[in-house]
Design goal:
The longest helix has 30 residues, at 230-259. The protein has two domains: 4-226, Spore Coat Polysaccharide Biosynthesis Protein SpsA, Chain A (Alpha-Beta Complex), CATH 3.90.550.10; 230-295. Helices cover 49% and strands 14% of the residues. The model has no long low-confidence stretch (mean pLDDT 84). Strand 2 (35-41), helix 2 (48-58) and strand 3 form a beta-alpha-beta unit. With 313 residues, it is α/β, with parallel strands linked by helices.
């Protein structure tokens, strides 16, 4: 079995790839690791794929999967995890901000008894807004999920192979891989790693990423607790709404029957009816969710255009 698979999503990073490959080779050769470099071209519009083809010609450890369009980092990592054959699987970004020299340190930390080790960019060379939002994101995520990491979204991580084969990635769940692993009973560690300023290209970070991250966190909490029992969530809300509406209408009915009060000018009547209707709708959503859980299929949401190097043993 290969010692290390390095999985690297690529999106328009042609200028960074030759140096990244050179640094990866230096690290694995110095430490006598058997390795493969799994590059996932996530629909790049520059010459990234051509550069990767050239690297494969000179180094058969370079394996490439080209996605048909830009599906996002989660899809790219999912494809990389599916293809990775190493005992240990390292993920890193392709922009040279993650240092391949950290790989031996990550392996050493993993061997202390962890299943996942997440990098912590303690000293970051990112814009203030990115550092600030990341800090808030890490604190909120730790509070909600119980997995406390200083840098949840660091791209530099290492996993035992069995971890990546169990964690399902889609949407934007790559931010929460340590949480998903912890939910499956794996031990999570953290290690301070070096971070470098970007040398080429432009950052893919935008203001919308913070909002997307918040929505992804909400999705993760719901899926982790209620994905197998959606009726417990929606049904609970529905029963609360229905019961409150029933009590309101019961109170109004007693007033009408016993005290002969007219209800046509009582807004409370409409509120009671609305609460009952909303309650029934929530319960219906929960039942539909139960049917979807029963019939859902685990089909990949991305399409591969071409692969290079994976046919070799």
């Amino acid at each position: 079995m290969i010692d290390v698979s390095v999985v690297i999503p690529v999106y328009n990073e042609a200028d960074s790839l030759p140096e990244l490959h050179e640094r990866l080779v230096a690290v694995v050769d110095e430490n006598n690791y058997s390795a493969e470099f799994v590059f996932i071209d996530d629909g790049s519009t520059d010459s990234s794929f051509q550069v990767l083809q050239q690297l494969h010609e000179t180094d058969k450890r370079v394996c490439v999967s080209q996605l048909r369009r830009n599906y996002g980092k989660s899809a790219a990592l999912a494809e990389g995890f599916n293809l990775a054959r190493g005992r240990y699987v390292v993920t890193m970004d392709s922009d040279l901000q993650d240092d391949p020299a950290e790989i031996p340190h990550l392996i050493a930390k993993l061997l202390e008894g962890f299943d996942v080790v997440s990098g912590w960019k303690k000293k970051r060379y990112d814009p203030f807004i990115k550092r600030f939002t990341s800090k808030i994101f890490n604190k909120v995520t730790g509070k909600i999920t119980g997995v406390h990491l200083n840098d949840m979204n660091c791209g530099l991580k290492i996993y035992r192979n069995e971890v990546i084969k169990l964690v399902r990635l889609y949407g934007q769940r790559h931010r929460f891989i340590p949480v998903l692993a912890a939910q499956n009973g794996f031990r999570i560690g953290e290690l301070v790693v070096k971070h470098a300023p970007r040398k080429h290209g432009v950052t893919k970070f935008g203001p919308s990423r913070f909002l997307v991250g918040a929505l992804d966190l909400l999705t993760l909490v719901f899926l982790s607790r209620y994905v197998k029992r959606p009726l417990h969530f929606f049904g609970g809300l529905g029963m609360m709404s229905f019961s409150l509406g029933f009590l309101v209408n019961l109170y109004l009915s007693i007033e009408r029957i016993l005290y002969n009060k007219f209800l046509s000018n009582r807004p409370l009547l409409f509120l009671g009816v609305l609460l009952i209707i909303v309650g029934v709708q929530f319960i219906s959503i929960g039942l539909i969710g139960e049917m979807l859980v029963e019939s859902r299929s685990d089909v990949n949401s991305y399409k591969v255009k071409k692969t290079i190097g994976f046919e070799q043993e």
